[in-house]
Amino acid sequence: MSAGFAQAAPSAHAAYLDRPPQDEVIYFVLPDRFANGDTANDRGGLAGDRLKTGFDPSDKGFYHGGDLAGLTARLDYIQGLGATTIWLGPIFRNKVVQGPPGQESAGYHGYWITDFTDVDPHFGTRAQLKAFVDAAHARGLKVYLDIVANHTADIIQYRGCPATGCDYRSKADYPFVRQGGVGGAAINDGFLGDDSARQTAENFAQLTRPDFAYAPYVAKDETAVKKPAWLNDPIWYHNRGNSRFTGESSTYGDFAGLDDLATENPRVVKGFIEIYGRWIDDFGIDGYRIDTARHVNPEFWRAFVPAMLARAKARGIPNFHIFGEVAETEPGMLARFTRVDGYPAVLDFAFQGAVADVVNGKAGTDVLAHLFSQDALYEGGEVAALRLPTFLGNHDMGRIGHFVRAAHPDASDDEITRRVILAHAFLMFTRGIPVLYYGDEQGLAGAGGDKDSRQDMFATRVASYAADRLVDGGAVGGDHFRTDAPLYKAISAMARLRTTEPALRRGRQVVRAAGDKPGLFAVSRMTEAGEVLVAFNTGLTPIVAQVEVDATSRIWRSAHGSCAAAATASGSYRVEVGPLDYMICVSEVGQ
C-alpha cells in the first residue's frame, strides 16, 4: 500500500460520481511509458522488425511496452500520490509506424488513430480497459480519456503535390467548386460553401468530389484501415495540404501531414458524436481531454460537447468533465474557446507559463496577479476558472524539472528541488484543477520537450533517458515507483492537505499580495466556512510582511508552515515565509 493515502473503501465507487471537477487531482500518463504488465502485447500481435511492430524499447520514438495491465497493477501507487483522476493518453488503435524513410517513428503516444472503436493492441484489449476502469472506480478514482476529432493518422496522400511538400491550398485559390483550383473544371455543382449557416446535410450532399485542391488517394493496402468504415472515404476530409498554423489553414490544414477531418460536415459531426458517445456507454468514462481543440471549427464543438454531456448524464455520470487543448498563453484567447466554442474548460497554458517564470525568478509575482485578474473573461467568470485544469509541463513542451534546471544551470540540486516543490505548491493551492504529469513526482526532468519528456517509469533501455539526472541530482537508475521519493512525499502531502481543506479546491480566490520582483505572492481562498491564506516566497531571502485578510478572520491555525495564532489587527495578518517556501494558514468564521 502506498504511503499517504489508503485504498478507498468499497462504498467509494458510488461517492466518486458526486465529486465536482474542481475537487479532482488529475494524473496524466502515457500508457506506453508507465508500466509493462503484459509482455505478450509488446509488439501488438504483429511480427517482424520494429517498422512492422512499432516495438523498440531502446528508441524513444517507438513503443516501449507499457500497457493497461501495468496501469491496473499500479493503482496503489497513483492513489497513494493523492490523484483522484487518471487521464490516459489516447488508447485507440493507431497506425503502427509512419514517417519518411529513415525518420520513422511509432504511434506509442496514441495520436495517430486509425480505429476509433478499439483499443490499440500494444496497450491491451477492450476487456483490459474495462478491468482498468472498473478497478479505478472501485477505489473512487475517475478515468478521463484523451480523444481526437481534428484528424486521423496519415493515410490519405495527394497527387500533384510539389516535391517541396504539400503546402496548404486556400479556399480562395482552390474553391470547393473547381477541380484543382480556380482555373479547373466545375465540380460539386450546387455546393454553397461550409460557413456556419450552410452546414446542413442538404448542402453537403452536393459536395461529392474531394479533388478541389489536391487529388487525394489512398494506398491499396490502407483503403480499409480506418474504423468506422465511413472514415476511409476522402470526401470527409479537407485535403488541402499541410497547415501553416495561421489563419484559415489552422482549421483546414493537415497537422504535420495527419488527415484533417472536415468537421464542418454534418456527417462527420454525427459520426464522432456516436464514436465517443459509445465509449461513455461501454466503459463509464468520466471525462474527455480533447486534443488539438483549436484546430476544429466552433460549430462542431457546439454540437459535440452538449451531446457528450447528455450521453454521460444518461449513463449516470453527472460530473462528466470536458476540457480542450488550446496551446495559447493569452487568457483572453483561452477564454474565447469557452465562450465561442462552448468548451466547459480548457487546459490553462497561461498558468503554466506564468508559474514557470515566477518560480524561476524570471518575473515578479505580479505576473500571477495579472493572470488571475483575467479569470472573469471565461464563460461563467471566476467560478468557471475553478474548473480549468492547470499544469506545470507535459508530453509536448517538457517537464517542470527541465525548465527549472535550464533556468538555473549553476544552482545546487537542493535549490532545484525546492523550486520544483514550490511550483507544485502553486499548482495544488491556487485556483484550478491540478494536473500532475507522470514521473514528475519521481524527479524525472528530461532534456527537453516531445520525446525527451516521455521517459519510462520502468527501467529504461533508452540511452538518453538513462543518462538524465533526476531533479535532486540522482541517477535515473531502475524503475521509478518509490513512495519515499522526496517529490512523491511532498506532492502527496499537498494532495492530502487539498482534500482536508475544501477552500483549497472550491474557494473563491482573492489575490492579497504580489510584487514586480521575485518574493511574496499571497492569495486567500474564501468560502462561507472561512478563509485559507496561502503565502509563497519565490525569492532566496526570508520574507516577513503584513498581508490583508478578511476582517472577520481573527484566529488562525497552521496547515503548513508556522502561522501566527491571531491577526495583528482587524484585516491584517503577519506572515513569515522562508526562501523558496510557502505557508498555509486557516481561519474559521466566528472564531
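[next item in queue]
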Amino acid sequence: MADLLHALLESRSTLLADVSGTGRVLARSDRAGSMQLYEVDTAGRVRQCTAFDEPVGVAAAVPGRRAAVIGVDAGGNERFQLYLVDLDAEAPVSSLEALQPLTASAAHGHLLAGVSPSGQEVAYLSNRRNGVDFDLWVCGLASGEHRIVYAEGGYCQPSSGYSPDGRLVALHRPGPRPLDSDLVLVDVRTGMWRMPLPHPDEAAEIGAPAWVDGEVFFASSTVGRDRAGIVRHDLSTGRTTPLDGVGDQWDASVVSGADGRTLLVIENAGGASRMRLFDAPSGTELGPVPTAEPGVVASYVGAPPHLSADGSQVVYWLSTPRRPGDIWVHDRRSGTTRQLTENPDPVDPAVLAVPEAAVVTSFDGQAVPVLAFRPLRAEAGEPDGGAALPVVVVVHGGPESQAVQSFNPVVQALVAEGFGVVVPNVRGSTGYGKRYASLDDTTRRLDSVRDLASVHAWLAGAGFDPGRAALWGGSYGGYMVLAGLAFQPDRWAAGVDIVGISDLVTFLEHTSDYRRAHREREYGSLEHDRAFLEQASPLRRAEDIRAPLFVVHGRNDPRVPVGEAEQLVAAVSRRGIRSELVVYDDEGHGLARLANRVDGYGRAVHFLGEVLSAPTLPAGPG
C-alpha cells in the first residue's frame, strides 16, 4: 500500500484556463510540480509555456495574438501580479523578469477581470488604492496606460469578463449579509456602472453573466428563491424572465457561446455536475452533455466549461472521485466525447473507491448529506464490509463551500491505507439552498460543530469504529477539526488541521485587511460579536483537548496567519498532548507545491496510522 499511497499523493491535475479563438486550449497543470501554463492543440498535443519557481494562479488568452495574461504571486502570499506571455516562445519561460509586466505593485493584489474582445486592453481588480478595497482598473496593452474605472469599495471579485462589444466589464461586489453578492457592470469607457438584478431586501447571489449580445445576458440568481435558477435579463428594458425547468431541485450556473445562440447550464446535483444545452432565443432544451462518470466540471480553482462560438463543441474540465482533473471535449454534431489531456502516471481508477451517499439526522432533525468511502477488497474490487473500520471525517473549508464528487488524493490515500472516510456537508455548506447555507451564520456557528457530533453518532451503524474516529480539515475545515477536539473531546481520537483557525478573535484581528470585513459578515464582527467569537474559539477550550493533533501551515498565509497554528500547538503541547506542527516557508493558504503536498499529507496519513492503530476512546455518547 505504500506505493499506492505515494502514487496518490503525487497525482497531478490539469485545469481548464481558457480557449483561444483558434480552438487551442490554455491549461494550468502541476505535472511539473506546481501549476504552470500549458497550451493544448486540438489533437491533444501538450506544450509547456512557463516553468517558474512560483505557481501560475490564472491565465487568459489575448484575442488576435499569440499571447496570454497570467497571474503569479510570491510564496502563496496572494498578492498576484499580472504578466503577458508569448505563446510562440521556443522554450518555456522560466523567469518572470523575461516577461512584460502588466502590474508592478508587490505590496498589493491584482485579480484578472478580463481581456477585451479586441485584445487591446486588460481589466483587473486591485487594492492598491488603499490596501483594502478592490477597484476595477483597465490597462492598455500597447500604451501601458492604467485607468481606474470603478472605485465604489468592497472586496470585489472577477466575474465573466467583458461583454461581447467590449463596453462592459462584469464584477461581483459583496452585499451587506452573508451569501449576498451583487452583479456590477462597469462601462470601461465612461466609468458609469449599473447593478442589474438588485435585491435590497434579501441576501441573494447573482452569477456571472452569459452574454447573448451587448444588451442581453443570462445569469444564475437566488433572488426570491432558495435554489439558484437561471434568468434572462435585458439591460435596455430592465426586464428579467426565468429559464423554465432549471433551478427547482439543484443550483444552476450558465455559460454561453460567442454567437449568443447556445447556452450551457451546469447543475449541481448533490455534488456532481449535470450539463444541459439550451437554445438561447427560445429557451428550448437541446439535450444533455455526457460525462465519462459522475464528477464535477465547474470549480473555483479553474474556468467554467467553454462553448465554441457556434455552440457545437463543449470544452470542459472533469474531475471525479477516481480521476484527477483533465480536459475533455464533447462534439454535438458527432455526439462523441473525448479526453483531450491525460495527466502523467495516473492511478488505475479500478483500485480506487467510489463514495456512497447517505444522510445523517442532526440534533435538531436537520438532514446532513455525507459521502462515505470504504477500502476495497483486493480480490473483488468491492467495498470491504468486514470489521468496523477506523475512520477519518474530512470536513471541507469555506464555510461557504461544498464537498463535491471530485478527486481528492488525501481521501483516496486514507482509503488506500485502510481507513474509512466520511465527508459531510455540515450546515452552512453551499449546494443545498441558501436556507441550509445560512444555518451556521454568526452566532449559530457552533450548530455546525454539533453536526459533527451527529456524524459521530452515525458511524457505528454505518460500519465504522467510533472509538477510532479522527477529524481532518483545511482552512475553515481546520477550525472544525479543532472545534471538534475542543468541544467534543470524548468523541474524537485524533485531528489533522491544515491552515485552520484556532481563535476567531485573533484570526479576524490578524487576517489581511482586505479580507476582514468580508469574513466578519459570516463569522460575526469584532465590535458586536466578540463575546460569542471568544466562546466559539477552540483555543479558549484548549485545556479540554486530549486527542493527538497534527498541524500543517504555510508561513506566508495571508488569510489564516501562521500564528493561529503556533498558538494552538503551544497551548496543547504545554499539557503534554502529542502535537506536531509542520510549517512550509514557501506556502500560503494551503499547499500549492507537489513536493510539499506529498511530504505534509504523507506525514499526516502516517500520523493517523500510528494513533488510530488500536482503539483509543470508548465509543462515546453517540
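[queue empty]
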